């Protein structure tokens, strides 16, 4: 990146440097050398690139749609761990660690994220200590505090409409069913 900027500035500076022409050359606008044309084009392109390029700004938008999607996708994965937690399967919970991280960052508002991270840390502290009762207690508290529920099972409901387009997060899940007459 620094090299590209340096080369751009060099091209711009060399385009405006004086050209030493032979004495017999005329100064008409039609009589220009190829070198001058290309250096002018390079300088103007470099200047346009330098001033027209804007930096990428990621705002980390948390709209209602992105929160709902994170709650549905990652909250559903967390809710599906209830059988593993009740059975004391630490490996299944560890395998879904990313679901906790993504749920905390995507579905929870910024003011409650520290609390969500602390609750997640309590779950994984119970896993590190191999304490089944502490895992169950911290998992149940986490699910209750952040209102985590599994997606509804619409597979056997003949009148259900689970999603309306292929970009919905429920496509391919138990809640993703289209009612067709």
List the helices and strands and how they pair.
Layout: H1 2-15, H2 34-52, H3 64-79, H4 82-87, H5 90-95, H6 97-106, H7 113-128, H8 132-145
Helix pairs in contact: 1-2, 3-6, 6-7, 7-8
Domain Photosystem II Psb31 protein: 61-148
Organism: Triparma laevis f. longispina
Signal peptide: 1-15
Please sum up the structure shown.
The two termini are about 60 Å apart. The chain has about 180 residues and is mainly α. The chain has helices at about 1-15, 35-50, 65-80, 80-85, 90-95, 95-105, 115-130, 130-145.
List keywords for this structure.
181 residues, Four Helix Bundle (Hemerythrin (Met), subunit A), 56% helix
What does this protein look like?
The protein is an all-alpha fold and 181 residues long. Among the domains are: 64-145, Four Helix Bundle (Hemerythrin (Met), subunit A) (Up-down Bundle), CATH 1.20.120; 151-181, no CATH class. Helices cover 56% and strands 0% of the residues. The chain has 8 helices and no strands. It has helices at residues 2-15, 34-52, 64-79, 82-87, 90-95, 97-106, 113-128, 132-145. Helix 3 (64-79) runs antiparallel to helix 6 (97-106) and helix 7 packs antiparallel against helix 8 (132-145). The longest helix has 19 residues, at 34-52. The chain is elongated. The two termini are 58 Å apart. Keywords: Signal. Residues 1-15 form the signal peptide. InterPro entries: PSII_Pbs31. This is Photosystem II Psb31 protein domain-containing protein. Residues 61-148 form the Photosystem II Psb31 protein domain.
């Amino acid at each position: 990146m620094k090299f590209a900027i340096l080369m751009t500035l060099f091209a711009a500076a060399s385009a405006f440097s004086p050209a030493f022409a032979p004495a017999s050359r005329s100064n008409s606008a039609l009589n220009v050398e190829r070198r001058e044309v290309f250096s002018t084009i390079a300088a103007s392109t470099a200047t346009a690139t330098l001033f027209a390029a804007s930096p990428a700004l990621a705002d980390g938008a948390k709209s209602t749609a992105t929160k709902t999607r994170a709650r549905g996708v990652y909250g559903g994965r967390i809710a599906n761990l209830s059988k593993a937690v009740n059975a004391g399967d630490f490996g299944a919970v560890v395998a879904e660690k990313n679901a906790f991280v993504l749920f905390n960052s995507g579905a929870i508002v910024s003011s409650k994220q520290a609390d969500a991270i602390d609750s997640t840390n309590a779950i994984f502290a119970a896993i590190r200590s191999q304490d089944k009762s502490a895992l169950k207690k911290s998992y149940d508290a986490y699910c209750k505090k952040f209102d985590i529920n599994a997606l509804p099972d619409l597979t056997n409901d003949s009148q259900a409409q689970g999603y309306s387009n292929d970009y919905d997060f429920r496509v391919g899940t138990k809640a993703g069913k289209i009612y067709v007459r």
